[in-house]
Amino acid sequence: MFKLTPKRIVDLCKDKPVLLLCHDNADLDSFCSASIMQRYLKKKNISSSIGVPKHINDQAQHFAFSQKISFQVNPNLEEFNLILLFDFNGFEQLGRLKDSFVNLVAKKNVSVIVFDHHVADKKCIVYSGYCVIDEDAASTTELLYNFLGAFDNKMFFWNCIGIIEDTGHFIVGDEKTFSSFAECLKNSKQTYVDVLSFTKHKIPQDERIAFLKAAQRAQIQKIGGVIVVTSELSFYQSAASTKLLDFGAQIALVAGVEREGLTTLSLRAESEFKEENNFNLVRDLLIPLQSQIGG
Ligand SMILES: [Mn+2]
Predict the structure, then answer these.
(1) Backbone angles phi, psi at 163, to 5 degrees
(2) CB 3.0–4.6 Å: which of 63, 89, 219, 283 could bond 124 by disulfide?
(3) pLDDT-based confidence at residue 3 (cuts at 50, 70, 90)
């Protein structure tokens, strides 16, 4: 199913400075995936560095500290001959590293291999050849579990964390994900509570206030039998629109001016509603909206 093999990856990494790069605003799946690969390569006597473009989220940072895994923020890409990307395949997700990455690739001084479980197309960094992509994998950690095979206790555990995070605690998933999760949890020699402890999200106070303001400012309309809620916030638009679905909205729109002249609009629709009505947010709402308001 994959064109690359683990052995080929190991051969490519030998005697080279290797960077395992997470996407900007690195999350648990991206960081756990890079950690799994680092451990795998170490067993093959290959050392590698984990890099993050700029920001790492709280859970991934907590994971890194508790598992004693070091990482570089804003690594100097010039120092590496091989860059492995985890859980992303778009130039924008390189954040502040985008320009130096593009320059380096143009000079052909570096090879890039992508590991990802998102849909790939021609706009992606790598869409054929040096990539391991499986849209059916629940997380990039699960993709690595299927691809690399040889896991130890820690790698099993880190895959459990990646799966639980990316399925939103199993809001989505299929029997394959459940069985690989069960198998990995058993082999990790840790408990489900241990896994959950890494995915707990401590909500910062300003985010809590943003949620409450979004609710306070909410305009509730019933359009054709559908509950549509709109609200306005300068920050946390996407988290707040998800929260409005929890409160009962079927479609939630939260907009706000972030910086001068730049308005962010975040939309969410309830899964059940989408499925029942074959509703696609982009196709049925964002694109028609774009033709009316621009942006
Ligand atoms: Mn992911």
Answers:
(1) -65, -50
(2) 89
(3) confident
